[in-house]
Specification:
It is a single chain. This protein is mostly helical and 131 residues long. The chain contains four helices and no strands. α1 packs parallel to α3. The longest helix has 26 residues. The protein is elongated and about 55 Å long.
Length: 131
């Protein structure tokens, strides 16, 4: 049960965090300096987070008829719960990318703490459920 709760924390961090931090503040959607195409990709990323979070929750809490099927569901939940965080952590690697725009205090990458924390919660939860 604790494992499923940790997978839920992962999913909530992904969905609620993306919506709140990427849609409802001055650094992203309400930034007048952002061109429309950047906002398009922002919404695309937020929707991806919401869909992955929904899949994570679905497979974390879906009843399984057999222990083998339960393990498969947990594995899928771990994968869907990690993809967004892995992509976020890798996004800082290409030259010219920043976690925070200069006008808001960048270059910086404060998101890594949340990315690692939520991903760790999900993976630990999956491990607890899988074993």
């Amino acid at each position: 049960m604790l494992g499923r709760i940790l997978l839920t924390v992962d999913a909530l961090g992904m969905s609620v965090g993306a919506v709140v931090n990427d849609c409802f503040n001055e650094t992203h959607m309400f930034n007048p300096r952002w061109p429309p195409h950047a906002k398009f990709h922002n919404v695309q990323t937020v929707l991806l987070a919401v869909f992955l979070a929904a899949l994570t929750l679905y497979y974390a809490w879906r009843p399984a008829r057999t222990p083998e099927l339960r393990r498969e569901f947990v594995f899928v939940s771990a994968v869907t719960g990690s993809i967004y965080w892995i992509a976020g952590l890798l996004s800082i690697l290409p030259p010219g990318t920043m976690g925070v725009d200069p006008e808001f205090g960048g270059p910086a990458f404060p998101q890594y703490k949340i990315f690692v924390g939520c991903m760790a919660a999900g993976l630990l939860g999956a491990w607890m459920e899988y074993r």
